[in-house]
Amino acid sequence: MERQIIIMETEKYVQKQLEGEGTGHDWWHIHRVTELTKKIAEKENADYFICLMAALTHDLIDEKVTNKTKRAMNQLMKWFDQMEIPSKEQKRIIEIITTISFKGGNKPTPSTLEAKVVQDADRLDAIGAIGIARCFTYAGSAGNIIHDPEVKPREEITEEDYRKKDGTAIQHFYEKLLKLKDLMNTETGLKIAEERHRFMEIYLDQFYMEWNGEK
Ligand code: ADP
Ligand code: NI
């Protein structure tokens, strides 16, 4: 099957799979990550097809999106078969999407250029103006409040803290969002991250000024 057609068919497939998705991994997240992936892959001379396929499917097997990751994985491989993607390439795509998730934080940096590209694109969608929007949306759906001045920003926070309602949206900036810039794998990703990072810093300055009645 022609690659362009595989990509288009997979777009439709993913869109359908993510219908009703409400954890911040909806189709538009995938769309944004795919667009960023195109941009970074081109500049970094990474394998365009592999990167794009990984970007499109990266959240389908995520435990936050499905509670049956094994089944989701089998289903995805069936889809790849249907698209007549050679098994060697299937392996490369699967390898990327199983290694890029930030959760856990201590996973080793991905070793292939393609994984680095897609991981950067995924992380970029968690920062900047869009990252801020996703953060507040997530916090709201988890029942967390915007900010509590008594909750001192901590870099490490456990699920238990959140259960005790000790996690706020602003807290999440320190726990994750402000760390992502320094975790960029590619030069192209870093350039975009720097601008988005700066925007978050400006945002936080303004936020605290308003909070303290200074603006
Ligand atoms: P990923 O997109 O890497 O799979 P997550 O599922 O952890 O990441 O997060 C989805 C979105 O929700 C991201 O934009 C992330 O920053 C945000 N998010 C995750 N956990 C929290 C939290 N505790 N508070 C606010 N936002 C969060
Ligand atoms: Ni993602």
Task: Outline the secondary-structure elements.
Elements: H1 3-17, H2 27-44, H3 48-57, H4 69-82, H5 87-99, H6 113-124, H7 128-142, H8 159-163, H9 169-175, H10 187-211
Helix pairs in contact: 1-3, 2-3, 2-6, 3-5, 3-6, 5-6, 6-10, 7-9
Bound molecules: adenosine-5'-diphosphate and nickel (II) ion.
Keywords: Hydrolase
GO molecular function: hydrolase activity
Protein name: Phosphohydrolase
Described by strand count, sense and barrel closure, the largest sheet is:
none
Q: Write down the Rg.
A: 18 Å
List cofactors, ions and other ligands: adenosine-5'-diphosphate, nickel (II) ion
Structural class category: mainly alpha
Q: Provide mean pLDDT, rounded.
A: 90
How far apart the termini lie comes to 59 Å
**Briefly, what CATH class of the largest domain?**
Mainly Alpha
Helix content: 55-70%
**Can you identify the CATH superfamily of the largest domain?**
HD-domain/PDEase-like
Short description:
The longest helix has 25 residues, at 187-211. The protein has helices spanning 3-17, 27-44, 48-57, 69-82, 87-99, 113-124, 128-142, 159-163, 169-175, 187-211. It has 215 residues and is an all-alpha fold.
Tell me what you see in this structure.
This protein is mostly helical. The chain folds into 2 domains: 1-101, Cyclin A, domain 1 (Orthogonal Bundle), CATH 1.10.472.50; 126-215, Methane Monooxygenase Hydroxylase, Chain G, domain 1 (Up-down Bundle). 62% of the residues lie in helices and 0% in strands. It contains 10 helices and no strands. Helix 2 packs antiparallel against helix 3 (48-57). The protein starts with a helix and ends with a helix. The mean pLDDT is 90. Bound molecules: adenosine-5'-diphosphate (ADP) and nickel (II) ion (NI). The site of adenosine-5'-diphosphate has 18 residues, from helix 7 and helix 9. This is Phosphohydrolase. Residues 22-136 form the HD/PDEase domain. InterPro entries: HD/PDEase_dom (IPR003607), HD_domain (IPR006674). Keywords: Hydrolase. GO terms for molecular function: hydrolase activity.
